[in-house]
Amino acid sequence: MLARYGLAAKKAWGQNFLRDSAVLSRIAAATGAGPGDVVVEIGAGLGALTGALLRLDPPPARVLAIERDPDMLAVLAGELGGWTRLEVVRADAAHFDFAAVARAAGRPLIVVGNLPYQIASALILALVEAGRGGAVARAIVMVQREMAQRIVAPPGSRVYGRLTVAITQHAEARILFNVRPGSFHPAPSVTSSVLSLIPRAAPLAAVRDAALFEEVVKQAFSTRRKMLRRALAARFGEGEASAALATAGIAGTKRAEELSVADFARLADALADAAARR
Fold first, then answer.
1. Model pTM?
2. Is 80 exceeded by the pLDDT of residue 278?
3. SS3 208
4. Contact at 8 Å (CB) between 91 and 68?
5. CA angle, corner 14, sides to 10 and 19, nearest 5?
6. Is the pLDDT of residue 276 over 80?
7. In the chain, how many H helices and how many E strands?
8. Roughly what angle, to the nearest 10 degrees, separates helices 228-236 and 238-248?
9. Residue 49, strand partner residues
């Protein structure tokens, strides 16, 4: 298809086109989309996954394909222009208003896509945030396996970090399956993973101050090698940090990667209480 349109994958845009029909079918089926659903595809590219979504049986009510590359937009128009249930939108997914589309649809969206590595973290966090507001029912996204493993990592894992906590607090994340490099053109140097993200109806751990919770997590992971007492002291002061850790029942000698989401919530609440008493 690239040859037919006189095109080549753009490395600077992170373009690796999925060409394995079996994998495309699995991803489309994993969305669980059916009659009445509106599916938003991030980065439609050559339209391979777009076509698989349109051919689901029964099909979704509408597929909204986001693409910012003018060359790919021309391909989508040429290959899939006859589908009345398809709307191709020239937009940058990093700045896409999922909430506005959900309001227009009158229901939460199903989002799917092969996310460019450079903006995958930001896009996933944006989807989770949209899910918190009720705009996204679920997302099926493909990312590098290393990132997927970070997102689902348990406390104590070497790759458990700030991104893990931020996503786990507001969504249930699960790796569905891996995709080998040979399934793409051009083949990337890494294995990819298809990840399911389902927004939670309420945060996993209740917190009094969501902004403070995020600040505590950020500060704790800012210096991974440091003990929590020292890492938090740099932002909250040694006395306040030590007192909050004691109140939360967390040893100050622990490191950030040893704490669960619930641990971070207790710690943030202890700091919030201390601030309120000042």
1. 0.94
2. no
3. coil
4. yes
5. 80
6. no
7. 11, 9
8. 130
9. none
Q: Which 8-state DSSP code applies to residue 201? A: S
Quick one: pLDDT at residue 84? 96
Residue 83: phi and psi, rounded to 5, are -80, 120
Mean pLDDT, to the nearest integer, of 16-42? 97
Backbone angles phi, psi at 144, to 5 degrees: -60, 140
Which residues lie closer than 8 Å to 161 by C-beta, 6 or more apart?
150, 153, 221, 224, 256, 257
Residue 149 Cα distances to 145, 174, 189, angstroms? 6, 9, 17
User: Does residue 199 contact residue 168 with C-beta atoms inside 8 Å?
Assistant: no
How would residue 277 be classed by pLDDT, with cut points 50, 70 and 90? confident
**DSSP conformation letters of 12-23:** GGT--EE--HHH
d(CA 137, CA 127): 10
Range 152-171 average pLDDT? 97
User: Taking Cα atoms as reference points, which of 31, 180, 16, 11 lies closest to residue 110?
Assistant: 31
Which domains, and CATH codes, for the chain?
11-199 (3.40.50.150), 210-277 (1.10.8.100)
What is the CA angle 52-53-54, rounded to 5?
95
3-class DSSP string for 125-136: HHHHHHHHCCCE
Using the Cα atoms of residue 158, residue 163, residue 169 and residue 172 in order, give the sign of their dihedral: negative
> What tens digit of pLDDT does each residue of 167-219 get?
999 999 999 999 999 999 999 999 999 999 999 999 999 999 999 999 999 99
* Percent of the chain's residues with pLDDT above 90: 92
Here the tokens at position 115 are 């996310």
